[in-house]
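ingest -> validate -> predict -> emit
validate: passed (alphabet ok, no gaps, 232 aa)
predict: started
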Amino acid sequence: MVSTKAFKGEKRKLFVLHERTVDFDVAKIDAEIRSSVLGSEIIVTPPLIAETIGCQDDGLSVIKFDRPDSPFITKFGTYLYDSYDRAGSASTLKPLMKKWHEVATSNILPRIGNMDLITLNEKHLLLFLSIRSRVSLPLTIFDYLKTNITASRSGRIYFIPYGRVISLILVHLGVVKKTRTALSVSWGKRLHPDEHESDTEPEKDPSSDNEGQSGAAVQAKRQKSHPSSSNP
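emit:
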């Protein structure tokens, strides 16, 4: 965490305000997401996400400030915009904030829809980056994923973010290998992985062996039909 000594005046007050709200918000975290795949229980937590993506779980989640009484709302105009637009248009962001907003909506807080609009979560993320306050990527991913899963159950969302992260978690927990083994019972040996095969190793195409065998047979046939001449 950045020391408050690095800031002066209004910026230091804002950082201290942020520091005093972190513990209160983190205490409200529902610490896990539970699911099941073919009988295998999956428990997703921020530490698991951190281990899977190789990122330190240190800092705060911007999702915890997605509320109308956030203490930082009045600071958006000062740090994010050249001319503050209450409608939240990305076109009025400062040049550097525009670049960060593009990164946020495509990687950190992915979503669909009008990308010229800025959500409250995105504004908080940009603000914390602006004041150099540390954000926990694993915790933010966890909270944002949970929020979207909850919304999807009520039919208010059309996609679940972080497909790549979810895939890595399933591989990391061994769920992919267990699923292949379970499906091999009903679908045949083609889905049954070798005990030394990794989850990410591509399966060998059996047609390549057939092609190699047929090629050898053709070559042998040619040699029989055209014997080499011996010296007199």
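The chain has two domains: 1-30+62-135, 32-57+137-204.
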